[in-house]
């Protein structure tokens, strides 16, 4: 029966001013596009195709999700129909477009004006038998994907936006161009990209889902991203006369370095880091793309054609089959054909950072040979000669990344990331200090003078009271930094594991209130634990504390253990907490408290007050106390689910985090941080629209 139905290939009109364009996959009213998500759109397309006929729920499920699906499709269908009615301004009680047939399905009842369609029999045959090409994939079903539109194209591939009909998510499908399907080198590169990127699970690397083939065409299914490339970001900045947004630059810098760090730790060298291969999502997240450049770096393999390209050749594109990569973004060792490691990527990243800071390339030339000579023989123009307003510390970081001598260059991406994070922290402190009133500054100067006057006496007093307080030795050098490392579960029960990340999150929030100390973000703590292979412990020795200080520039750490008995209103938890100084290796404070698992906030508040006294910082204000309390979920179940979600995010399990966080929000809809964490999970999964809405 389905084979006899009409397949629309153009646009149909209904309701006077509404138009459904099958080819463009777009719904319009009065010529203006209407916003409608994929599932409602698919349902509407099916209903219009079957205009006047009853469409069952089973048929909708098969069309939208496929046969082998295990989802709550009833609620999804109901939501889709509500969305269609909302967009079309259709009254369910007196419908003009979509009629509900109770217990059976739906019917599209509006008449269609001047539909564009071919004869019923030939169109379907033509669509199914015509060879697949780059121009006729739109609307086709490839494996369990439906092609929506062309998203981009380049020398090594055509990228389409598609819908995963099994999982109900948007994806990008990257096909080899038709003319390269028979090229073994091109296919090898596509396979290399899939293998390399699919082995990496990191929020700053574009996720690869699978490598497949359809009708002789090879493709990669990958995370669909919305936003712009770093190349477009640089061009927009170049056209903007305003100052360089340091917060944004450092944020992107840290993210990209983190992605490179993860790749290098897995033994994967990108070899083609450039602005076009870095994507910035609408949520501000950096994603490294295209791990497909082959490791062909010896001189005999360098394309003679590439080195003798005439003036005017586009040198920003990696040439197919050439081993040089992208000429303007290669390292000296790549040019010389030497063995490369992660430092080659760092040099390329330095070239990208140089361009972000100045709007110009560090090394230029009319031909690849000229660029090659420039990279080997010349130094880049000092950055602040081009952009005098640039922060000197940032110039120093970029210059070190561009050292031709590998012994002088950053040895790994971790070093670069840490320098960028330290600079970010210093700039944050400077911003905080800029809000101090002149009157307070005078008071601070007077206090400093008093400290100098009674220095020896105060030193003796502090030594005598060392077990109760900490010398504020670096008060004039900015806030001290504190890392909450987590808590050991003494019971060993998996049902109470969630308390460790929950307590860590709550103590971080408690200590950050008032901005008297700089609390290391949870993501940075998780990365540090991984880098240093730190076990879950209730205390650390001097050597480990020194490693923590060197790695993350942390002054103090909070850690400990807990023993939970029961959950809910009758559940009890005993907390043993330690504050350790990474510089001296000493345990500065030890305290124990007991409380209810139903009200962890009180337990953390009392313990936090003790820590604040030991740290010599002011008690938390009533206003800040309210903010801290609001940052915690209102019940233990929501707290558990939120903690599990955050923990999964830190372990790069975005799908698991989404499930936990959606349940947390169901338990406590008003908890803002659960919504924020869910937005991040959506972003990591590629649902940028949902992330922004959340």
Key descriptive features of the protein:
694 residues; alpha+beta; six-stranded antiparallel sheet; 43% helix; disordered N terminus
Offer a quick outline of the entry.
The chain has 694 residues and is α+β, with helices and mostly antiparallel strands. The chain has 25 helices and 22 strands.
Which spans of ≥5 residues are poorly predicted at pLDDT below 50?
1-6, 114-135, 294-324, 433-477
Count of beta strands: 22
SS strand fraction? 15-25%
Instruction: Indicate the percent of residues in helices.
Output: 40-55%
Q: Termini, distance in Å?
A: 42 Å
Helical segment tally? 25
Secondary-structure-derived class: alpha+beta
Question: What does the radius of gyration come to?
Answer: 30 Å
The average pLDDT is 77
Overall shape: globular
Largest sheet, if any?
6 strands, antiparallel
Biggest sheet, spatial arrangement of strands = 9-10-11-12-14-13
Give a verbal description of the structure.
- By secondary structure, the protein is α+β, with helices and mostly antiparallel strands.
- About 45% of the residues lie in helices and about 15% in strands.
- It has 25 helices and 22 strands.
- The strands form five sheets. The chain has a six-stranded antiparallel β-sheet with strand order 9-10-11-12-14-13.
- It is globular.
- The two termini are about 40 Å apart.
- The N terminus is likely disordered.
């Amino acid at each position: 029966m389905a084979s006899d139905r009409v397949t629309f290939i153009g646009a149909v009109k209904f309701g006077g001013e509404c138009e459904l364009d099958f080819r463009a996959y777009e719904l319009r009213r009065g010529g203006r596009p209407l916003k409608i998500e994929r599932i409602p759109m698919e349902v509407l397309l099916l209903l219009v195709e079957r205009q006047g006929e009853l469409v069952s729920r089973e048929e909708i499920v098969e069309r939208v999700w496929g046969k082998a699906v295990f989802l709550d499709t009833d609620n999804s269908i109901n939501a889709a129909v509500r969305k269609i009615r909302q967009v079309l301004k259709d009254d369910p009680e007196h419908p003009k477009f979509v009629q509900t047939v109770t217990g059976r399905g739906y019917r599209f009842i509006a008449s269609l004006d001047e539909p564009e369609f071919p004869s019923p029999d030939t169109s379907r045959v033509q669509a199914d038998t015509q060879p697949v090409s780059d121009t006729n994939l739109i609307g086709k079903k490839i494996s369990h994907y439906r092609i929506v539109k062309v998203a981009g194209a380049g020398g090594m591939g055509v990228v389409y936006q598609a819908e995963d009909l099994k999982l109900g998510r948007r994806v990008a499908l990257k096909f080899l161009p038709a003319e390269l399907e028979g090229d073994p080198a091109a296919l090898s590169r596509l396979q290399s990209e899939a293998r390399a990127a699919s082995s990496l699970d990191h929020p700053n690397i574009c996720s690869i889902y699978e490598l497949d083939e359809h009708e002789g065409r090879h493709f990669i299914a990958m995370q669909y991203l919305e936003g712009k490339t770093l190349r477009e970001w640089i061009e927009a900045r170049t056209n903007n006369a305003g100052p360089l947004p340091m917060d944004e630059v450092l944020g992107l810098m840290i993210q990209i370095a983190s992605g490179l760090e993860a790749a290098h730790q897995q033994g994967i060298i990108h070899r083609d880091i450039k602005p076009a291969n870095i994507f910035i999502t609408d949520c501000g997240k950096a994603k490294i793309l295209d791990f497909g450049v082959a490791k062909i770096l010896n001189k005999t393999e360098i394309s003679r054609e590439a080195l003798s390209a005439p003036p005017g050749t586009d040198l920003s594109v990696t040439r197919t089959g050439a081993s040089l990569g992208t000429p303007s973004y290669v390292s000296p060792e790549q040019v010389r054909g030497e063995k490369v490691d992660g430092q080659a990527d760092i040099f390329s990243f330095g070239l990208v950072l140089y361009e972000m800071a100045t709007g110009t390339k560090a090394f230029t030339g009319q031909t690849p040979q000229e660029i090659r000579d420039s990279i080997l023989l010349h130094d880049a123009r000092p950055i602040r000669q081009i952009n005098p307003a640039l922060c000197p510390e940032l110039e120093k970081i970029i210059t070190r990344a561009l050292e031709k001598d590998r012994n002088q260059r950053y040895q790994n991406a971790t070093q670069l990331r840490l320098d960028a994070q330290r600079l970010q922290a210093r700039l944050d402190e400077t911003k905080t200090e800029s809000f101090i009133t002149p009157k307070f500054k005078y008071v601070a100067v007077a206090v400093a003078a008093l400290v100098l006057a009674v220095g020896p006496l105060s030193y003796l007093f502090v030594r005598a009271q060392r077990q109760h307080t900490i010398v504020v030795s670096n008060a004039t050098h900015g806030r001290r930094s504190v890392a909450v490392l987590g808590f050991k579960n003494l019971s060993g029960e998996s049902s109470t594991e969630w308390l460790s990340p929950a307590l860590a999150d709550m103590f971080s929030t408690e200590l950050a209130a008032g901005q008297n100390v700089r609390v290391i973000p949870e993501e940075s703590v998780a990365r540090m634990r991984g880098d240093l292979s730190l076990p879950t412990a209730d205390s650390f020795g001097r050597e480990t504390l020194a490693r923590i200080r060197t790695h993350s520039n942390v002054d103090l750490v909070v850690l400990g253990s807990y023993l939970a008995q029961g959950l809910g209103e009758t559940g009890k938890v005993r907390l043993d907490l330690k504050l350790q100084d990474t510089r001296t290796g000493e345990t500065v404070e030890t305290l124990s408290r007991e409380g209810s698992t139903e009200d962890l906030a009180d337990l953390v508040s009392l313990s936090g007050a003790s820590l604040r006294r030991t740290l010599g910082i002011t008690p938390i204000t009533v206003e800040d106390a309210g903010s801290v309390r609001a940052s915690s979920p209102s019940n233990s179940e929501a707290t558990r689910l939120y903690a599990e979600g955050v923990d999964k995010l830190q372990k790069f399990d975005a799908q698991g985090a989404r499930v936990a966080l959606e349940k947390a929000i169901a338990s406590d809809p008003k908890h803002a941080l659960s919504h924020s964490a869910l937005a991040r999970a959506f972003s990591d999964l590629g649902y940028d629209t949902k992330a922004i809405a959340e």
